[in-house]
């Protein structure tokens, strides 16, 4: 049963940095059995106050153990509580503060300990104050809100009193408000009495509605958010109309010209002179692409990620995953492992249809490509976190758990999927026979080159999601709880449709330029969306945040790179698969020699 608070125990009484902490806390939804496990208490039941972490307020990932600052340490070996996989990956380490709190029992001002300040402790506190440190408490398991800031004076003070106000409804804790009072000047040689008090207040707010205090309705449901959805929807209508026009008008006319049979020599010569563009490359358009094993791996991985994102969003909508610390991360890891069959199936079928022979390499690359990319980035970030002594460093035991999930669930399922895909969907079914000698590709204008088509292809998909990227980035980097997964579902579906439409248009123009290297171009055309997202993240970092220091900068751009790699692979796979259906459709009805 739990509450979480984020607060600053430390205060700088300076012109811009005296911290006044007011924090409301809510509890997670879960079945009820007893006490902390189900959020139900009896009068005078002990309620554990857990301390978690401290760190600079402007650097969300730069967090340290609560007792890295010289606060009062509990006597003896304090109990530790380790949460689920996602919670540990989030850098949480809960330690029992051993502050005596009992359910519905008020506590007058009580001394926790006497804190003797020496030069070293004063320096630690002053450094923390200079960096605007915040701290986080948990009473059970919940989310967090963050401090308001005001300014006064130019000296450094330490808050010595924690005033805890708890609202409860019958046998359940609903909200917790923590304020810090009684600031004392930081001076070496002083002895400070660190105190706390607890006040219990009944409330009519139900347990089901307890989390509403964290949800920033005006921010997430602003009219701009609705307008962006409408704008993206109109873009979908425009693009689907454009693709329909290509399919129903341009191609229909091309079919009529190409299929015309006339023995008259003059008519035949006229038809030959009219043949140009995509029809002339029918003997090369199904030629296996270069680096087939890599293309198969990224397309298979992207198909898995698309299904994974859709599944996690639906689970978040149904299961309210946003109320649980680390629940989204845990769900993502477990669902990734369980959907690995999809990556193998899509990759194996694609590799087989294009005549691939190196099956061992294909299976291993498909199963390990994305996990090892994430591992490489994570290893660098973890090394930095260990060097800084931060809680963001992943414990060795957690790494072992993640590796076991991959090695014994994800990897075998991917291998199985590759075998099934090879045997069930690996038979070549190309509408046109591939010619022995490749056709030379004529020179075209610069804007019809694969590189330009690839970079331009990501603009409209990015335009359909960049408003949502602002809300997602703000939630992850600025302490807001993202809960509008219905919006995210709509935006994700719009992204899929826009990506497919844009890639089809790009593929059509490329083939019309008599360039049959469409496979990688269609992939990169869609994947370039991630490039624009990463460029947007650079803008967001400099304009929308106050992050600083090598640690936080590394984590910001490292996490963003990991996200953009996944997004690029996902969009690239969607674009490639959409273009494949388009190409097969347009060549199905022409005469192939």
From TrEMBL:
Major place of residence: membrane
One cellular component term from this protein's GO annotations in UniProt: Golgi membrane
Regions that span the bilayer: 226-248, 292-322, 328-351, 363-388, 394-416, 446-473, 485-511, 523-543, 555-578
GO biological process annotation, one example: protein localization to membrane
Keywords on record: Endosome, Golgi apparatus, Membrane, Signal, Transmembrane, Transmembrane helix
InterPro entries assigned to the protein according to its UniProt record, in alphabetical order: EMP70, MFS_trans_sf
UniProt signal peptide: 1-34
Location of the protein in the cell: Endosome membrane; Golgi apparatus membrane
Topology in membrane: Multi-pass membrane protein
Pfam families, per the entry: EMP70
Family under the similarity heading: Belongs to the nonaspanin (TM9SF) (TC 9.A.2) family.
Protein's recorded name: Transmembrane 9 superfamily member
Natural source organism: Dillenia turbinata
């Amino acid at each position: 049963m739990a509450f979480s608070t984020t607060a600053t125990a430390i205060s700088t009484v300076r012109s811009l940095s005296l911290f006044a902490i007011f924090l409301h806390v809510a509890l997670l939804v879960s079945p009820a059995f007893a006490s902390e496990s189900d959020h139900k208490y009896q009068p005078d039941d002990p309620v554990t106050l857990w301390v978690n972490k401290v760190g600079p307020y402007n650097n969300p990932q730069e967090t340290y153990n609560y007792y890295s600052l010289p606060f009062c340490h509990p006597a003896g070996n304090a109990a530790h509580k380790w949460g689920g996989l996602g919670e540990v990956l989030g850098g949480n380490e809960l330690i029992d503060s051993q502050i005596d709190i009992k359910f519905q029992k008020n506590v007058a001002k009580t001394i926790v300990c006497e804190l003797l300040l020496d030069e070293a402790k004063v320096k630690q506190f002053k450094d923390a104050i200079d960096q605007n440190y915040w701290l986080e408490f948990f009473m059970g398991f919940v989310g967090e809100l963050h401090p308001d800031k005001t300014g006064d004076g130019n000296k450094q003070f330490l808050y010595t009193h924690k005033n805890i106000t708890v609202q409860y409804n019958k046998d359940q804790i609903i909200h917790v408000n923590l304020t810090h009072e009684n600031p004392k000047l930081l001076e070496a040689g002083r002895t400070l009495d660190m105190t706390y008090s607890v006040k219990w207040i009944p409330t009519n707010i139900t347990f089901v509605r307890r989390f509403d205090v964290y949800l920033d309705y005006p921010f997430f449901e602003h009219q701009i958010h609705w307008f962006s959805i409408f704008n993206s929807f109109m873009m979908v209508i425009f693009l689907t109309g454009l693709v329909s026009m290509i399919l129903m008008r341009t191609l229909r006319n091309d079919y009529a010209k190409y299929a015309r049979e006339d023995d008259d020599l003059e008519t035949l010569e006229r038809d030959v002179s009219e043949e140009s563009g995509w029809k002339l490359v029918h003997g090369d358009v199904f030629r296996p692409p270069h680096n087939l094993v890599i293309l198969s791996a990224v397309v298979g991985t992207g198909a898995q990620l698309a299904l994974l994102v859709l599944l996690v969003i639906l689970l978040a909508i149904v299961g309210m995953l946003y109320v649980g610390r680390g629940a989204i991360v845990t769900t993502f890891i477990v669902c990734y492992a369980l959907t690995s069959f999809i990556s193998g199936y899509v990759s194996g079928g694609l590799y087989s249809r294009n005549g691939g022979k190196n099956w061992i390499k294909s299976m291993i690359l498909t199963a390990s490509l994305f996990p090892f990319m994430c591992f490489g980035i994570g290893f660098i970030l973890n090394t930095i976190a260990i060097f800084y002594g931060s809680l963001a460093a992943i414990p060795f035991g957690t790494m072992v758990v993640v590796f076991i999930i991959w090695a014994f669930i994800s990897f075998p399922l991917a291998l199985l999927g590759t075998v099934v895909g090879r045997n069930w969907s690996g038979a070549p079914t190309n509408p046109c026979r591939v010619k022995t000698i490749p056709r030379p590709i004529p020179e075209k204008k610069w804007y019809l080159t694969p590189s330009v088509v690839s970079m331009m292809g990501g603009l409209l998909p990015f335009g359909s999601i960049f408003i949502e990227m602002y809300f997602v980035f703000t939630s992850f980097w600025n302490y807001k709880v993202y809960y509008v997964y219905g919006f995210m579902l709509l935006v994700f579906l719009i992204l899929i449709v826009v990506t497919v439409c844009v890639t089809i248009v790009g593929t059509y123009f490329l083939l019309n330029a008599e360039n049959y290297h469409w496979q990688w171009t269609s992939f990169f055309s869609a994947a370039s969306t991630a490039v624009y997202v990463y460029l947007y993240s650079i803008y967001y970092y400099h304009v929308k945040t106050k992050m600083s220091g090598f640690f936080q900068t590394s984590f910001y751009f490292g996490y963003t790179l990991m996200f953009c790699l996944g997004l690029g692979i996902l969009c690239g796979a969607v674009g490639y698969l959409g273009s494949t259906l388009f190409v097969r459709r347009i060549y199905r009805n022409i005469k192939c020699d």
